[in-house]
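HUMAN:
Just now I want nothing more than another pair of eyes on a protein record. I would be glad if you read both lines and explained how they fit together. I have put the entry right below:
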Amino acid sequence: MFDAVIIGAGACGLMCAVQAGYLGKKVIILEKNEEPGAKILISGGGRCNYTNLFSTSANFISQNEHFCKSAFSQWTVEDTISFFKIYGISGKEKTLGQLFPEGNKAKDIVEVFTQLCEQLGQQILTLSEVKAVDKDADGTFTIQYEQRGKLKNIRSAAVVIASGGLPIQKLGATDFGLKVARKFGLDIINTAPALVPLTVTGKEADWFASLSGNSIFCRVSNDQISFEENILFTHWGLSGPAILQISSYWRPGESIELNLLPKQNILELIEQERKQNGKKTLLNLLSQLYTRKIADAMAKYLPVEKNLSSLNKVDLQLVEQQIHYFKVKPAGDKGYDRAEVMRGGVDTNELSSKTLESKKVKGLYFGGECVDVTGWLGGYNFQWAWASGYVIANSLE
C-alpha cells in the first residue's frame, strides 16, 4: 500500500512526489517512458523555460477563469524560483518574464527531482504503462500496469493523474487521463491543440510559402486578445511566438489580424519620407522596414513601384490596411504533434480548486495538463504543473 500512486513522471507528477516525500508520505510514480521528465527535457529547445516572472491567473484559459487562483496562492512563482535555487538552479530572464536555468539545461531540472525522489525514498518505475484504475469496495484503488510485458497490480489510498495531455505522441502522449476521468463519470471540456502553428491553404498558400523562413515583429489579434511578438512565415502557413499565443484563442473558421508594424504608423513614415525624398519608391521604404523578400512580396497587394509622392488617397488607404490590418483566415492548425500543450481537459467544476481532488471520487486527483487550465507560451504551463503537484501532495491524507 502507498499513500498515492502517481501516474506520469512529468512536471506535475515529479513535483507531487517530492512534496509528498517532504511530508513523510510514501508514493510511487508509474511512467510509461524509459526516463522521467520527457517533455521537460525537450521544452524550450532543451533549455526548459521553467516559469514566468509575471505569471497570474489572467495568463490561463479555462471555462472557470478563477479556478487556478487557489493553486497559485498556495504555490507562487517565488516558491518555484526558491525551490530550484535551493537545489542549485538559478534562473535568468530571457524575454517577457521567461525564466530559464542559468546553465540552459533542461536535464538539470529533471535531475533535481530524480535525486530528491531517491533521497526521499519515492520510487519512479519507468517503462510502466498503466492499463486500468479501479476503485475497490473498501475505498482503495487498484492500479494495473504493464512493465516489460508483465501485468502487475498496486493498491493505493489515492491516485494522482498527472499523465499530461495529447501532445506529443512520440513522447508517449495519450488520452489516458481523460479516459480515467470519463470512467469515473467526470465531465470533459472539449480538447484541441494549443500553442500550435496555424496553416494557410487555398489561393493565399503560395504567397505565404514564398516567404518561408522570414520573421516579423508583429501584433496578432482576434476579437478576444492580442499579442506582440515575432511571427514566422512557413511553407504551410504561420508560426512563431505570437501565432502560437493566438492559436489558443483561435477557433476554426475565424480570422486573425496582423499589424505588421505595431510600433510605428506607416502613413506617418510615408509623410516624413515624402518631405525628404518624394522620389523614393514604396518598395524602397518597405525594404527599410522588412526583409527585401517581404518587401517584394508586398507587390501582390500594394503599388510598390510608385514613388511616395505619387501615392494617392486610395493608395494610402490600401497601404494602411495591408500593413496595420492584414487579415488572415487560417485553414487549421498543425495538430497535436506540433502543439506545445492541449486546450480543454477535465472540467474544473469536477474538482476542488483547493485540493484538485475529484468531488465525486474520494482519493482521485487530477493535475497538470489534463485539467482544463491552459497557460500562455513562456513558462506559464510549468508554473501550473508545479503548483498543481504541490497542492495535490499537501492534500493527500
In short: The two ends are 13 Å apart (CA to CA). Residues 90 and 293 are 41 Å apart (CA to CA). DSSP finds 13 helices and 22 strands in the chain. The chain has a mean pLDDT of 97.
